[in-house]
Specification:
heterodimer, A: mainly beta, 6-stranded antiparallel β-sheet, 5-stranded mixed β-sheet, 1 helix, B: alpha+beta, two-stranded antiparallel sheet
């Protein structure tokens, strides 16, 4: 190697090292959901004699966690048939209050029974809990029945775990 | 052994074979050129005249990185010994630690590591005393990692935060490296150079419960493939150096 060319790669490399260190982040960003997501779809029978459930957009549904934590408000959804809930990591049982429309006074309570397992996501995201639903019970003011489609509740946002069938004339 | 692991091993072996094959051809080409320059009536028998060299160095970039990156520390030393035909045996080692002190995750790790392998120079020597080199090489490396108990908090805006701990653990990380780089002798016996490394973790399943943030010698423990750079200053100890040209002419 000639003397001029000898040192050029070293200088370039030193600049690269400085650039790399300057751009190193203290913590990588977390690119996955950190909380396990329970996706719920709502359906109903269009008539009393119908046998096939159809997707049902609820006009103004509200899901409210029943918890001892103060000032936890429910989530008011615009008209839609897909909703997102979560399960309590502190327990193996949790409850949600549900109404299909804020214009009605009818509410149902949905109770989830499940097992939880600790899951390490990454250093960027930390730990979370994944769940396996054992059973789901509810009152029946608005809800006709509840079906578990997939008992596994993870941070996979593309899986629907629960199907809530609403009374025909909700 | 899973299909993924098998594919990984096949890839490593294939790539290594290609690298070795490529460097051998470069060397063979250089040899042929030298031979063609001599009179056709003479058959030239080439000898390796470079003598022996044991080179010992350390990575000067690590202290710089240690001072700039607050949550990790590492030191690294390297040695290589010239065998023959531009082949060097290489051994590297070091130690390091990391501190994870996030709001939702806290633990410490420390580890030491060793790497063994070879480098092959792909530059033709100007003369036997020319020890400047560009090289490719391969390493097999292992580190024993000691992780303290980890405390974590699962932050949930609906149900409230949940705090817990995961017990400490000792484990071994094993990886292979493909490396390339250069070094130049800027003062007699004293070298500066850099290595670029691609590293593939072989036992990543060991880290499913909590992959360490940083493994000295490897890098980010939660990545299966990482790339790294080293800047070495090293000193070469030489002996048995011979004359510049030592060809034996055989008259037909």
């Amino acid at each position: 190697m000639t003397k001029t060319n000898k040192y050029l790669p070293l200088i370039l490399f030193a600049l690269c090292v400085i650039g790399w260190v300057a751009c190193t982040q203290e913590r990588d960003p977390c690119l996955t959901p950190k909380i396990a997501i329970l996706n719920v779809e709502t359906q109903h029978l269009p008539t009393d004699t119908a046998t096939v459930f159809v997707d049902t957009a609820l006009p103004a549904a509200v899901f409210t966690p029943i918890t001892t934590i103060p000032n936890i408000a429910g989530t008011l959804y615009p008209p839609q048939a897909l909703f997102t809930l979560s399960l309590s990591p502190d327990s193996t049982v949790c409850k949600w209050s549900f109404t299909a429309d804020t214009a009605t006074n009818k509410f149902d309570t949905i109770t989830f029974y499940y097992q939880k397992s600790l899951k390490f996501l990454s250093n960027a995201c930390g730990y979370t809990y994944f769940y396996n639903i054992d059973s789901v019970q509810s009152t029946h003011n608005i809800i006709d029945s509840i079906h578990i489609l997939n008992a596994s509740v993870t941070n996979n946002v593309n899986t629907n775990q629960l199907q809530i069938c609403i009374h025909t004339h909700f | 052994m899973s299909i993924l692991t098998s594919c990984r091993y096949v890839f490593i072996l294939t790539f290594s074979a290609l690298v070795l094959s490529g460097t051998s051809r470069v060397y063979a080409q250089a040899t042929d050129t030298t031979a063609a320059d001599t009179t056709s009536e003479h058959k030239v028998k080439k000898k390796d005249l470079a003598g022996h060299q044991l080179s010992i160095g350390f990575d000067i970039a690590r202290p710089v990185i240690n001072s700039l990156v607050s949550n990790q520390m590492g030191y690294e030393f390297a040695a290589d010994y010239y065998m023959h035909n531009e082949l060097y045996l290489a051994a590297e080692g070091g130690w390091g630690s990391s501190t994870v002190n996030y709001t939702d995750l806290k633990y410490n790790t420390k580890n030491n590591f060793l790497r063994f392998g070879f480098n092959r120079s792909i530059l033709t020597r100007d003369r036997p005393a020319d020890w400047d080199m560009m090289f490719v090489g391969m390493r097999l490396a292992a580190a024993n990692v000691d992780r303290t108990p980890a405390t974590f908090t699962v932050i949930d805006s609906v149900w409230g935060s949940n705090t817990g701990s995961s017990p400490g653990k000792d484990f071994t990380a094993v990886w292979v490296e493909l490396t390339g780089g250069m070094r130049v002798e800027f003062i007699k016996g004293l070298f500066a150079g850099w290595n670029f490394r691609g590293k593939i973790l072989l036992n990543n399943r060991s880290f499913n419960d909590l992959a360490p943030l940083y493994i000295a010698g490897y890098g980010k423990g939660d990545k299966n493939v990482v790339f790294d750079l080293n800047v070495y200053i090293s000193y070469g100890i030489r002996w048995n150096r011979k004359s510049l040209v030592d060809t034996t002419a055989i008259t037909k």
